Amino acid sequence: MKSASQMNWIGGGLLAVLLLTYLHPYHGIRHDAILYLGQALLHVDPKNFGSDFFFAFGSQANFTIFPPLIAQLLRYFDAAGVFLVLTALGLLLFLVSSVALLVRLFPSPQWYWGLLALLILPTSYGGFSIISYAEPFFTGRSLAEPLVLLALAAYFWNRRALACGLALLAALLHPLQAIPLVLVLWCDLVYRDRRWLHLLWVPALILLAGMLGTPFADRLAMRYDAEWFSWFSEPNGFVYLTQWSRLDWAFLTTDIFLATRLLKSATGSLRTLTRSLLFATVLGLSISLILGDILHFVLPTSMQLWRIHWLLHWLAMASIPYLLHREYVGRPKDPIRTWLLLTTIVVGISSAGSSAPAVWILIPFYFVWPSVSHRISPAVRRLVAVSFPLILVILVVKRVSSTIIEFHQLGNIREVLRPEFVILAYPLIAAGLVTLAVLAFRHLGRWRPGLLILLIPALVYSASEWDRRSTWTRYIESAQYNPLLFGTSFEPKAQIFWAGELVAPWLILHRPSYFHSQQMGGMLFNRETAREAFVRRENLNLVEFQLSACRLMNELNKSEESCWLDASAITEVCQRSNGQLDYLILDNDLKQKSIGSWKIMGNIKGDRPITYHAYRCKDFLN
Predict the structure, then answer these.
(1) Which residues, including other chains, have CB under 8 Å from residue 93's CB and lie 6 or more apart?
(2) Buried-most residue among 456, 464, 506, 608 (CB within 10 A)?
């Protein structure tokens, strides 16, 4: 019979992996993973991908060793398998690295509750909530983030040489994710010894030299001109604080509020990290706002120092169980403030609707309550005591009902929405169920073996369901490197516009993509990339509008032949491309002979035949 301690470790580990796999499912090569795939393919096949405008003028990939490392794997294994396995590895590394740091920061068992919070609560940060830690797809961030957390753990275990090595490796894999670590450690060093402030002379002198026109330094002090800024400010708006939404600022406010509460009660390494993170957050956001949003310097904007938010958000989420416990223990006779804190947290991290900005009312109320509570009558206190649990119940009912309604509106198609997943993934529901499960495991000693056995099939099910790629995604990824897919060959370096797809031309045909909106991700790093992206997007506007209209008409009429693109629009696009666009691949028959076609079972459920037609620009120009 295993000891209670051993069973706690086994049960705790199984539960953590269960939450990791169930709440962070894999959906394939998507989001930024597509761009990292392209960067790796550039190293595998530079002849073809070198002419893709996303790479032609240079990109941020020049500052990382990540693409050549992945390229080596792609030479021996298929991309679908590589990205799936490395996504799983990245998530497991995030779990392990989080444990390594949490154990150093929080007492037992608070560090474990903090780990559960990290797995359950929202992971997105920054503008528009488009970037997260522990992302369920593979990018350079997938490896750099665990390395940053391990570097922090080593730093606070006084293993400074190891911390520096891990930080360097993180920077080589993804500089933008490692820069926040440098800021945090520098803030701690300054707190200990003010002489570290002299490092500020370095960027100040570089900026001054650049403004004076000194060679090389002038490139570091370059600013966006009005035209360049107009090209990328809309598609890359998340890098500018002034374009963040109220919801984004509410999330940030919640994280800062939690960190300040943590600073008041924490001791040792936890207090040191919290203090340094708050200083680094103020510094990073201020530099981003002044040098990026206001003065439009290229380098500070490209460094995206607002990404310090990822570490702040990680600490804020991990600290929630610790803060709630201390609030409850510290004020046993005033549970209202504990309920108020819990409500503030739930509302502040909620991405549903516009409820998050309510934290700007709840946070002041939280601070004011101790000084006004004794002036309130018992009847009003009882009313207030009931109101906060009621708010939480309403939020849960709202999430459940809205999910069920949305599921029915989408035709009860589970490939689009899994209602049980959306409901169980809601932080308040997930946290409540997990809390009950952990408490039951701890207090029902005689039932522990049975509960432990139940975790095993649950984990097996969760792991088997982790790969949730759609039928369509599997088609695209399984057809990789098949340049004769359309029954004809595409000459080397031929630029292809594949409507709505970027993975397809890159992965399947191994040819440059003429344009896809995701290729606009590098516009703030290079002026020529921004100019070319803008010109190509403008050129394709009419065709993409017609494609959208035809897809809608065909969907309404349940037919693939109820709407056709105007061939003259294709002719105009080919003419205006100045010979750069060679082929178009469209899911629309132009009633003009194509050079080939590919028929697959597409749609969301993979139950409807879709035919892609390949057209050659030269045939429209002759």
Answers:
(1) 142, 143, 146
(2) 506
pLDDT at 251 over 90: yes
Spatial CA neighbour of 291 closest among 282, 303, 301, 277:
301
Q: Cα angle at 516 between 514 and 522, to 5 degrees?
A: 95
**How many other CB atoms are there within 10 angstroms of residue 108's CB atom?**
8
Radius of gyration in angstroms for the set of CA atoms belonging to the chain, rounded to a whole number: 27
Contacts of 116 by beta carbon, 8 Å cutoff, 6+ apart? 15, 16, 19, 321, 431, 434, 438
Tell me the one-letter amino acid at 566: D
The predicted model scores a pTM of 0.95
Give the Cβ contact number of residue 428 at 10 Å: 19
Which residues lie closer than 8 Å to 451 by C-beta, 6 or more apart? 11, 437, 440, 441, 444
Task: Please write the tens of the pLDDT for every residue from 154-175.
Answer: 999 999 999 999 999 999 999 9
pLDDT tens, residue by residue, 81-92: 999 999 999 999
Q: How far is CA 394 from the centre of its chain?
A: 29
Average pLDDT over residues 595-613: 76
Q: What does the pLDDT read at residue 607?
A: 63
CA 509 to chain centre: 28
Residues in contact with 484: Cβ distance below 8 Å, sequence separation at least 6, in sequence order: none
CA 419 to CA 406: how far, in whole Å? 9
Cβ proximity of 427 and 254 under 8 Å: no
- Give the position of tokens 């350079």: 140
Residue type, 532: E
Q: Give the mean pLDDT of the chain.
A: 91
Residue ranges of alpha helices (H) inside 479-566 are 503, 527-557
Structure-derived torsion over alpha carbons of residues 243, 246, 249, 255, reported in degrees to the nearest 10: -150
Residue 291 is classified by DSSP as I
For the beta carbon of residue 77, count every other beta carbon within 10 angstroms: 12
Share of the chain above pLDDT 70, in %: 97
Q: In this structure, are strands 596-602 and 583-586 parallel, antiparallel, or unpaired?
A: unpaired
Q: What is the distance between the alpha carbons of residues 610 and 363, in angstroms, rounded to a whole number?
A: 53
Of 178-187, 198-207, 304-313, 420-429, the least confident: 198-207
> Per DSSP, what are the bridge partners of residue 610?
600
Non-local CB neighbours of 561 within 8 Å, separated by 6+ positions: 554, 589
499 in Cβ contact with 482 (< 8 Å): no
Distance in angstroms (rounded) separating the CA atoms of residues 584 and 564: 15
Band the pLDDT of 1: cuts 50, 70, 90.
Answer: very low
CA distances from 510 to 52, 81, 434, 573, 575 (A): 11, 17, 46, 23, 24
Q: Which three-class secondary structure state does DSSP give residue 360? A: helix
User: Which residues in 63-154 belong to E strands, given as ranges?
Assistant: 124-125, 131-132
**For residue 216, pLDDT beyond 50:** yes
Among 13-27, 229-243, 601-615, the minimum mean pLDDT is found in 601-615
